[in-house]
Amino acid sequence: MTDNVELNQKISLDLEFSGAINNAVSQPLNKNFGLLLAMLQQDILDRKLIEKEPQKETYKSDIEALNHYRPHALATTEDHWHQQNTLSSYVNDNDFPNARLWECLFPPPLSLHNDRYRVGDEVKHNAPYDTQLKLDLMINHPAETDPTKLYDILNTLNSV
Q: Are 127 and 119 in contact (CB under 8 A)?
């Protein structure tokens, strides 16, 4: 609070920031303009700079404070399996209002594994054969680089 008061006092004392020079120019036959212009600081480097202090970005913490819900789980834990068993028992008993309430209170995780590059086994087995080969090469056999093989190829070409 005192920082704002000090800033306002600095602005009101400064002739340019307070608007006193602008008011003197806008009024016809006003002799104050010459006086105010003479009162200005000649050395512009010697003038005090009035800057507001940079405010900390608190909007992220404000948004998090407004969100009263717990975040979604990214991977499955043992508790999630028990919660899903309870949900399936509600559905088997045709107790759909309680099933909906249970699912709202305990949402399922977003994924079984917290790995965005993981491709499930069912997806691999149902993919076309050439895609399966490509996925198998990417996972099981990383590319090997051997700079001496190029030298061997060049030697065989030169000998021919």
A: no
Q: Which residue has the tokens 């005090």?
A: 48
Whole-model pTM above 0.70?
A: no
Measuring CA to CA, which residue among 137, 76, 145, 141 is closest to residue 106? 76
Q: Which residues contact 84 (CB under 8 A, 6 or more apart)?
A: 108
Domain boundaries, the chain: 2-39, 73-111, 112-142
Query: Do 74 and 111 form a contact (C-beta atoms < 8 A)?
Result: yes
Which pLDDT belongs to residue 95? Answer: 94
Q: In 3D, which of 107, 121, 122 has the Cα closest to residue 76?
A: 107
> CA–CA separation, 38 vs 43, rounded Å?
12
Using an 8 Å Cβ cutoff, are 122 and 130 in contact?
no
How far the first Cα of the chain sits from its last, in Å, is: 88
Local mean pLDDT, 10-residue blocks, the chain (160 residues) = 63 62 69 72 62 70 77 84 94 95 90 81 90 78 72 84
Residue 125 structure tokens = 């087995």
Residue given tokens 């480097």 in the structure block = 45
Find where tokens 């190829």 sit.
Answer: 153
